[in-house]
Amino acid sequence: MNRRNLLASAGILATGTMAARYGFAQMSSMPGMQHGGAVPPKTVIQPIEGQPLPMLKEVGTGANGELVAELRASPASAEIVRGMKTPILAYNGMSPGPCFVAREGDLVRITLVNAIPGQESTIHWHGMPVPAEQDGNPMNPVTSGERRTYEFRLPEGSAGSYWYHPHPHKFTAEQVYRGLAGAFIVKPRGEDPVPAAFGDTPLFFTDMRLASDATMPASTPVDLMNGRQGDFVLVNGAYKPELSLEAGTRRRFRLYNALNAGYLRISFGGIKFALIGSDGGLLEAPVADMTEVLLAPAERAEVLVPFDGSQRSVTVQSLTYDRGWMGPGAPSAAAVDLMTISVTGSAAASIPPLPSKLRAIADLGASTITKRFVFGETIKMGGPGGMSMTFLINGKVFEPGRIDETMKVGQPEIWEIVNPTDMDHPFHIHGTQFQVIDTEKSGTRVAAPFKAWKDTVNVASKETVRIKIVQDMPGDRMYHCHILEHEHLGMMGTLRAGA
Ligand SMILES: [Cu+2]
């Protein structure tokens, strides 16, 4: 039965009393519930907007080739709405946390201090090739009040746009939407094929929902089902910020979708730009004449955008994208303004050319091993509240300690990720970068248009995505949907890579 029929037969879609029928403990105190439905009340307050784009605070490698830092995760407050305090979670008082910048070959030694009252935490190095026991998995929690040091060396060829966020069992979604996430940029050991004159600016997108007192309300059943979407998308922690650039420049941006569940279909006011990088670093060559790039939650892209001065004010937007929605409260279908770039100086006759080549991307080798991962969702009856929704991979809800799949270190495999559900799900696996082979929908198979390193790939509703994957290090790795509320409700498994 498809989900809509399932819900209708369970009497959920029509009644508007979804909350009352779900078994979530915190329900009665949730904002929005007193309004007779599961839709949160519309925010009546507005964040401060139009401030200069904040630059992320960079923490770099020392002269000895070691990046040593401490990340203290703790409650903090932010002034999102003028004169009001929003309680958040922050790393070293900041959200996003510091932007780590290291080079291939560097040693990283970062200590997490968990000062979050009553909750475990970890730091997961999203997309980075780090040993399993250093990767902040849920089975290695740092309890409240404790600290632990993560240590790993960045291998050659690992330059890319990574990020970090907590990954504790049952608290990931909440800790991330409350503010815990940051960028981690690895630069090449040798010369960067992208000219330094193009700059290198991370745009770290998050989102936020605020109640009328500027606090962040707890997630509702609708949030858990669809993934929590905020009312405001922030860029480097600011709402609709402004950036000023000279005409005649080509700029390098690293785009990060760090939203819990929201998709970003980013355009630069119609300007044709070049895609030069994916989750795991540069492509082989720029892909020119792009007008938009779709980023599912956790995906990243590097782009080069020309500003010739013909547009004096460029609105960076997220265009509408239908990722599937269940029940009330679907986000607006209108494009969302993310930030404004004002272009100063006299219009330039020419823009510096694109680099023709970026780097070589190796093939992963032949494989005869195929695994299949099928997304699913179900409504579970029983319990005091009546029912709850769970999300599945291969018919199973995540269970700590259970090994769902095994593979041999160094041996490439082909994985088919199948999504028969009504909603898109971004598939992510820890510890490695994979390559997309092709996608298939309604019987039409489309080969990946170019080689790219990915750690997260969107699997649209009714679509199958085939990837080629190798794990180079032994250990247990999580794979899961990166709509964090779906991960929370069970859409996760454990892979054991061994000899
Ligand atoms: Cu999902």
Bound molecules: copper (II) ion
β-strand number: 32
**Which secondary-structure class do the elements indicate?**
mainly beta
For the termini, the CA-CA separation is: 41 Å
Domain count, please report it.
4
The CATH superfamily of the largest domain is Cupredoxins -  blue copper proteins
The name CATH uses for the topology of the largest domain is Immunoglobulin-like
Characterize the main sheet.
7 strands, mixed
Net shape: globular
GO molecular function: copper ion binding; oxidoreductase activity
Domain Plastocyanin-like: 78-189, 227-309, 388-495
Keywords: Metal-binding, Oxidoreductase
Protein name: Copper oxidase
Describe the model.
The structure is a single chain. The chain is mainly beta and about 500 residues long. The chain folds into four domains: about 5-35, no CATH class; about 60-185, Cupredoxins -  blue copper proteins (Immunoglobulin-like, Sandwich), CATH 2.60.40; about 195-345, Cupredoxins -  blue copper proteins (Immunoglobulin-like); about 370-499, Cupredoxins -  blue copper proteins (Immunoglobulin-like, Sandwich). Helices cover about 5% and strands about 40% of the residues. The protein has helices spanning about 5-10, 10-15, 20, 170-175, 220-225, 485-490, and strands spanning about 60, 65-80, 85-90, 100-105, 105-115, 125, 145-155, 160-165, 180-185, 200-210, 230-235, 240, 240-245, 250-255, 265-270, 275-280, 280-290, 295, 300-305, 315-320, 335-345, 370-380, 385-395, 405-410, 415-420, 425-430, 435-440, 445, 455-460, 465-470, 475-480, 490-499. The strands form six sheets. It has a seven-stranded mixed sheet with strand order 12-11-10-14-19-16-17, with no helix packed on it. The protein has a six-stranded mixed sheet with strand order 23-22-25-30-27-28. A five-stranded mixed sheet has the order 1-4-9-8-6. The radius of gyration is 22 Å and the shape is globular. Bound molecules: copper (II) ion. Copper (II) ion binds next to loops.
